Amino acid sequence: MNKKRFNIRMAGIGGQGVVTASHILSNGMVIMGGESTLVPFFGSEKRLAPVESYVRIAHGKIYEIGEIIYPNVIMIFHPQVITHGKSYTMPFYSGLKPDGVVLINSDQPINLVADEVRELEERNAHIYYLPATTIAREKADTDLATNMAMVGAISAIMGIPDLPSLEQSVKERFLGKGFVVSGGTAALDNVIERKFAKKEQLLKKNMEVISAAYNYAIEHGWAEHRQTATV
Amino acid sequence: MADSAGVEVKPGATVQAPPQAASAGSEASRQRVVSPEYMFFEAPRERAFITGSEAAKEAIRRANVDIAISYPITPQSETMQQVGALWAEGYVKEYYRGEEEFGVMSAIAGASRSGARSLTATAGPGLMRGMEVVASWPGGRMPLVLLIMCRVINAPLSIQPDNAELAYLLNSGNIIFHAENQQDFFDYSLKAFIISEKPEVTLPVAVAVDGFFVTHARGYVMLPPSDIKLTPRDPYHEAIPAMDNENPPARISRDAPIQKSNFISYHVHASWQQEVWAAVERSRKYIDKYMGGLVEIVNPDAETIIVASGSAVSQSREAVRQAEEDLGERIGLIKVRSLRPFPTRELREACKNAKRILVPEFNCVGWLHREVCTALYGYSNAEIIPGPRVFGGISLPTEMILQYIFPDKKFAF
Lengths: 231, 413
Description:
The complex is a heterodimer.
Chain A: E1 5-13, H1 18-31, E2 35-40, E3 50-58, E4 73-76, H2 80-83, E5 101-105, H3 114-122, E6 126-130, H4 132-140, H5 146-158, H6 163-175, H7 190-219
Parallel strand pairs in A: 1-4, 4-5, 5-6
Antiparallel strand pairs in A: 1-3, 2-3
Chain B: E1 32-34, H1 36-42, E2 46-51, H2 52-61, E3 67-70, H3 77-89, E4 94-97, H4 101-113, E5 118-122, H5 125-134, H6 137-140, E6 145-150, H7 166-169, E7 175-179, H8 182-196, E8 205-210, E9 218-223, E10 228-230, H9 251-254, H10 262-282, H11 284-291, E11 295-298, E12 304-308, H12 311-327, E13 332-336, E14 338-340, H13 344-350, E15 356-358, H14 367-376, E16 383-385, H15 398-405
Parallel strand pairs in B: 1-10, 3-4, 3-5, 5-6, 6-8, 7-8, 12-13, 12-15, 15-16
Antiparallel strand pairs in B: 2-9, 7-14, 11-13
Helix pairs in contact in B: 2-3, 2-8, 4-5, 8-11, 12-15
């Protein structure tokens, strides 16, 4: 049975675009015809400080509001969330539902202490290490696209929202709704045209990162577990 | 939208309305007056995905508001900032920032008594600061709307959504609605003006909503078109006529009971306050007519019933859905839309067969639990469970509600 809803907690550090990633994921689900609600952690948003954002996505109606205390999907955008405790929720998997998914941005597995390993095993957690920052550097030549890699991989793992919806979501995020990419450029002055060219490039690179991470997740067989995460 | 809601005023300069305010040809000047019935029920609606603050703004845009007075406090500031933008666009005739909440609540009282359709808003500590005046509004028979974006009032200090403050407002004589989501916040705010100004009501209406969860999060809101607005206030068909050059101040303010003998004072106060609370009760028929009743009931035949208001309703809906889909159990849900008047008779009827009643709340004092106990005393044999409750503004997880409903099952690690 393909479960209809995912409650996702994202944790990262300020400047990584955690909240932006949650907007893109959330809006992507709405574009796909589903529902989504999004709550960032309100407080002291600043560079390198802990950041959390919570996204609910579903095919059906969503009533719940507020932070997600018991997620079935957790996304860790930076290894320091775990290794340095840069998080509002400690340990990083607190509240994780049985058979849940933890997607961690790290090039290699992180050495967890014995209690953490045991508790994750008790929950039958699926832990996936994605070299998100490395993919971002390779495809977009910038760490700043790390969030796009995380979005691409989690989309592959959950099965929703699909890549076309994510692409539209990225466009709306960076160009604004109702922006017609193909028309009206004649009316724009040179300055706007230059910005437009940059944004086009930005969109293209972001989508390359999303696709690469999506494929990485598929190739590693992570999508096979998408049915097991329950609410 | 004009982002420059504030107009710089230099010393000695003549204060003028912003050039776009209600100027001929502006969108605001082209708004058409429609009946409340048309606005609420007949006008075509389109779906928007907006924050609670934006939903309030859209209600005020269509409410034909004469004056709004505000003082900033999180999480209310964003809404009143948007009302400033409405003023700059000409949708609200007068708008200014008071010195603090005591001043704001006093000033808006004067605005209301002068016959203007009046709006203010505050949150948590701001409500507590203004409470002296807020508690005097009903006796002054002042139709106005107060939006409350609930936040923590007690120490340790926090800006998070927690609605303990409503406990202090419950017995002030104000009518109080508690909105569940962005759609409610739009609808209740708009309808509050009309209910407030009904001749047999003539009372202030507070529309409360849980901060951040609703004010700063987006949700779907069905909106009527922006080119229509409500009929203006008619202050000469209210329980007390407005003060103007021909109508002196109402007798209560011209000949205050405090100047009379004690016995006259007691008598005046008794009859006056009984009339205030009778007016609160008389608002019921308009709440029924415009808001679909004081309560909404889901699965009325269930043995276990959740009674909730505000954001706790949303969490409860999700718990009801999960109980039905995942566990095959039907759980009842009573959403309390109106806290004053309180739906006493509705609860007695809806709970007559209930065996267990849960009252989830976003505060530590459990004011709704007390209200439910008082309403059902002698009318129900159900166990009325005080909770679950969350403190300090954290969200109430559905798992916590389910754990209370099914104590033998395990819903989280």
